[in-house]
Amino acid sequence: MYDLIIIGGGPAGLTAALYGGRSRLKTLLLEKMCLGGQIILSPTIENYPGFVGGVVTTELISAMHKQVEELGVEIKNDEVTRIITTGQLKVTAREGEYVTKTIILATGAFPKKLGISGEDKLIARGVSYCGTCDGPLFKNKDIFVVGGGDKAVEEAIYLTRYAHKVTFIHRRDELRASKILQERLFENKKVEILWNTVPLEILGEKRVEAIRIKNLKDNQVNDVACSGVFIFVGIHPNTEFLGSVTKLDEQGFILTDEAMKTSVEGIFASGDCRRKTLAQVITACGDGATAAFSANHYLELMKQ
Questions:
Q1: Would you tell me how many other CB atoms lie within 10 Å of the CB of residue 99?
Q2: If we measure between CA atoms, which residue out of 58, 224, 259 comes closest to residue 145?
Q3: Domain range holding 123?
Q4: Among residues 232, 257, 289, which one ends one of the domains?
Q5: Do residues 221 and 239 both lie within one domain?
Q6: Catalytic residue (choose from 134, 150, 272, 287)
Q7: Fewer Cβ atoms within 10 Å of its own Cβ: the N or the C terminal residue of the chain?
């Protein structure tokens, strides 16, 4: 019997584990892949407080991991497939079943796809959702970036380190990204921005050869040669395994209150898997801390 099981080992889950450990709760963290979550795909984090010039992501996650281990928190690589709420709280995973008094869902999210022809066929053959992972493969190549938020702009700027030219396309006439990132993008001579433009199809047999785009102002369609298409159009929450266990919004994000409580007693949520305004490492850490505090408070009330 655990006091707390945390599902997910990204910044939210690791912070929850830190606070759970410091509260002397018998805590288990389950992560199906590697610690760090989606943020591990970015080499550095520029806006994490206290690190002038940014912090190397792997170093930050490694430090979090060490903190958690020193507190005696148990960490296992296992994929959760089901949560049972009738009677005792139970977490069913590939390697076994775990019984617990409280649960924190910190399962994160994954990139959305465009859903256009050629996208699935050419994944890892020129289609990518991670510039920092695949950028070096496109040295001196012409590539496209699709998106409009912070992630898209950050990755486009990063890709200019390798690409000959980065063509940035956005369906509107202004970006959603923060102003400082927009300024960097506009100043970069390797970047061309095509406003009011959408991708229709990614072309190529064995590898990306071109992208078919449409200008929404004049409806003109063009095929433009390129070697890669990088897609940053949002995220999906990793909540499919929950089924109807907790209340979700129409996109599948977990609904919580400000204490990170879900619709189920004893189950809390934190990070990118819950509905929130800002998905950042710092907000994920704050969520994790709050969720663990709330879980501990819930356990204290159970003793009374």
A1: 13
A2: 224
A3: 113-232
A4: 232
A5: no
A6: 134
A7: C
Number of folded domains that form the chain: 2
pLDDT at 293 over 80: yes
Give the pLDDT score at 277: 85
- Amino acid letter, residue 144: F
Tokens of 289: 């801390």
pTM given for the model? 0.79
* Angle in degrees, CA 226, 232, 237, rounded to 5: 145
134 is catalytic: yes
Q: What is the CA radius of gyration of the chain?
A: 21
Dmax over Cα atoms in the chain, in whole Å?
A: 69
Domain final residue pick, 198, 232, 266: 232
133 given a catalytic annotation = yes
Q: State whether 125 and 185 are in the same domain.
A: yes
> Among residues 3, 78, 120, 133, which one is catalytic?
133
Coil, strand or helix at 143: strand
Q: Which of 57-61, 128-132, 176-180, 300-304 has the lowest mean pLDDT?
A: 128-132
Q: Which two tokens stand for residue 256?
A: 């919580």
DSSP label at residue 138: G
Tokens matching residue 189: 């001579």
Three-state secondary-structure class, residue 271: helix
Which residues are within 8 A (CB) of 208 and not within 5 positions of it... i.e. 6 or more apart? 118, 122, 125, 126, 127, 202, 226, 227, 228, 229
**Which residue's entry shows tokens 């707390």?**
4
Same-domain check for residues 100 and 246: yes
Active site residue 34: no
For residues 82 and 140, state if they share a domain: no
Q: What is the pLDDT of residues 153-212, one digit of tens each?
A: 999 999 999 999 999 999 999 999 999 999 999 999 999 999 999 999 999 999 999 999
Mean pLDDT for 9-13 is 97
User: What residues pair up with 98 in beta bridges, in sequence order?
Assistant: 91
Question: What is the token pair recorded at 286?
Answer: 């704050």
Residue 168's CATH number: 3.50.50.60
